[in-house]
Amino acid sequence: EFFMHDADWILILDADEFLSINHPSGTLDGMVADLNAMQAQAMVLTWRIFGSAGIRDWSPLPVTDQFTRAAPEFWNKGWGTKTLFRYDQKHLRPGVHRPMIKQQFRDTDYPDSVLWVNGSGRPLERWFKLRGWRSIRRTVGYDWAQVNHYAVKSVDAYALRKLRGNVNLKANKYNTDYWSLQDRNEVE
Predict the structure, then answer these.
(1) I need a labelling partner for 83 at 20 to 30 A (CA). Which of 22, 42, 128, 187 fits?
(2) Helix, strand, or coil here: 32?
């Protein structure tokens, strides 16, 4: 946690997640400048689920070059989130998907005093600051940024992932149902 103290903004991503900047500036710096100008404390970034693109074999090529097909923008089965946030040690506890407001500040005016925005730079509702890690239709936004989530990749890569298991120790997580749900290829 000590490395967070010196950071201006923090984003915790898994190895199969990539930040995609859609901001009009085309840059992370431009997006962060706008977040700073609006005095935002957090940007909740919704996943965009990418599928196998019909690729069977494992390849060392970059994931972002191989798998270019994804779920439609408003396919809500994959609306998990990750959060780009300013670290505030007094009020926040870091989390995998989003920072949590510490219990002693939840029923104070703190949640109303901070601006959290979605991936389009629009303010989020109070409840989103307090619980959950999935977007709903009225909180999702991709205009400034999104997190591209490559949960399955190729058939070979998925088979290796299944053999390796997952960090949450969920038995049989990587089964055919998971593949069927995550292998989204509807749009380029």
Answers:
(1) 187
(2) helix
Where do the H-state alpha helices sit in the chain?
28-37, 63-66, 103-106, 110-113, 126-130, 155-164, 176-182
- Token digits for 77? 């089965």
pTM above 0.90, yes or no: yes
What's the distance, Cα to Cα, between the start and end of the chain in Å? 38
pLDDT band at 101 (very low <50, low <70, confident <90, very high): very high
Q: List the structure tokens of 183.
A: 């292998």
Tell me the C-alpha distance between 42 and 48, whole Å.
Answer: 19
Tell me how far CA of residue 160 lies from CA of 119, 153, 165, in angstroms: 32, 11, 9
Q: Do 101 and 132 meet the contact criterion of CB atoms below 8 Å apart?
A: no
**Whether pLDDT at 166 is above 80:** no
C-alpha to C-alpha distance for 64 and 66, rounded to whole angstroms? 6
Are 28 and 102 in contact by the 8 Å Cβ rule? The answer is: no
Distance of CA 131 to the CA centre of its chain: 15
Q: Give the separation between CA 134 and CA 171, rounded to whole angstroms.
A: 22
Q: Is the pLDDT of residue 141 over 70?
A: yes
